[in-house]
Amino acid sequence: MSRSSAKRNPVREARIHDEILVDAYGPDEHVMGWYYYLEESLTFPFAARCIAQRATSPLKKGEDVTVLAMAPDEECQHEMFVRVRWQGRRVAVPLAQLAGRHVDAPTRQAIEDWHYWRAQGYEF
Q1: Interior CA angle at 96 toward 2 and 84, to 5°?
Q2: Whole-structure pTM over 0.90, yes or no?
C-alpha cells in the first residue's frame, strides 16, 4: 500500500475502515469489501461523466455514459470496474475515471469514497 500527498479526511478514513474494510485482511478481502460496498451503495443505472482518460478505457474526458452495473467480480481484482452503455455496446471501465451526474447521496458517497481511496495511493 503506497501513500500519496492527497489531503487525508479522517471521517472518510474511518468510514472506509469501519464499513468497507472491516474484518478484511489482505488484498483479496479488500477487493471483495470494496466490490460489495459499491454493489450495495451504487443505485443503478446512473449517469456519469468521464473525468480522466485512461489507456485501458475507450472513454474520452468529458464523455457522458450510463452506468448499468458493477462489472463481474473477476474483472475487479486490481481495480473496480463498472459496466457502461457506450456507443451501442456494454463495456467495463474503471470507476476511478467516472463522476456521477445527478446521483443520489449513497451513490455520490460511494464514488467519492473510491476516488478518495485511490487518491490516497491505496492499492489491492
Answers
A1: 150
A2: yes
